[in-house]
Amino acid sequence: QSALTQPASVSGSPGQSITISCTGTSSDIGAYNYVSWYQQYPGKAPKLMIYDVSNRPSGLSNRFSGSKSGNTASLTISGLQAEDEADYYCLSYASGSTVVFGGGTKLTVL
Amino acid sequence: QLQLQESGPGLVKPSETLSLTCTVSRGSVSSTGYFWGWVRQPPGKGLEWIGTIYYRGATYYNPSLKSRFTMSVDTSKDQFSLKVTSVTAADTAVYYCAAVNIVSTIGVYNWFDPWGQGTLVTVSS
């Protein structure tokens, strides 16, 4: 079971939009619409930001959106804010009743 | 709002067995709406899924880790647990427990929320 592939880092200026990609295989992202995204601040637990590819939990800012094409899922953050600086992880359900995380992406707000 | 809290020893010696417990509050570990999961994060590294368990006993493990890890549920205490045998320094990590949303009780689940705050386990003599 290999980790999903995310860029190690992305950056953007306040107000801009950024996109984090998450690439898997036909056994995970490509096979199921069960991709979720998590935000993690240093020393804190991960927080669910997106589930089932593109759904936001209640109360979450609509600046966060998700999508999927083939074996690649994406998280887009629009109107970037300083508070968005954090690590982001994707997670996908996979065959065999397993799940697999991406390696994580560090977002820097310039 | 469901709450989860991990508890564990903090420090474990190499080759010993690590035991962690996650206590569920404001809800029940016997809920038919959740599986329960364990995730760990070595210092400075990414998240690694360990396994997922249903209160009726069904378990799903990361195939890369399976042999040393065992999960269980204690419905009388609203707790679920993780045991790791023969620990080494590579098992040093923050261990998180989380509620896992069920799509189907035959082993389909889609997201982890909420999470416990995490507990740091250090393996050292």
What does this structure look like?
The complex is a heterodimer of chains A (110) and B (125). Chain A contains no helices and 9 strands. Chain A has strands spanning 9-12, 18-23, 35-40, 47-50, 64-69, 72-77, 86-94, 98-101, 105-109. In chain A, the strands form 2 sheets. In chain A, strands 1, 3, 4, 7, 8 and 9 form a 6-stranded mixed beta sheet that branches. Chain B is mostly beta strands. Chain B is built from no helices and 11 strands. In chain B, strand 9 and strand 10 (108-115) form a beta hairpin. Chain B is globular and about 40 Å long. Classes of the chains: A mainly beta (110), B mainly beta (125). The A-B interface holds A 1, 3, 34, 36, 38, 40, 44-48, 51-52, 57, 89, 91, 93, 96-104 and B 39, 46-49, 52, 60-64, 96, 101, 103, 107-118.
Q: Structural class per helix/strand content of chain B?
A: mainly beta
Q: Report Rg of chain B.
A: 14 Å
Say what oligomer this is.
Answer: heterodimer
Structural class designation of chain A: mainly beta
Number of helices of chain B: 0
Low-confidence stretches of chain A: none
What is the CA-atom radius of gyration of chain A, in angstroms? 13 Å
Mean pLDDT of chain A: 97
Low-confidence stretches of chain B: none
Q: Let me know the average pLDDT of chain B.
A: 96
Largest interface: A-B, 26 and 26 residues
What is the total tally of β strands of chain A? Answer: 9
Q: Would you list the SSEs of chain A in sequence order as H and E?
A: EEEEEEEEE
For the biggest sheet of chain A, the summary is:
6 strands, mixed
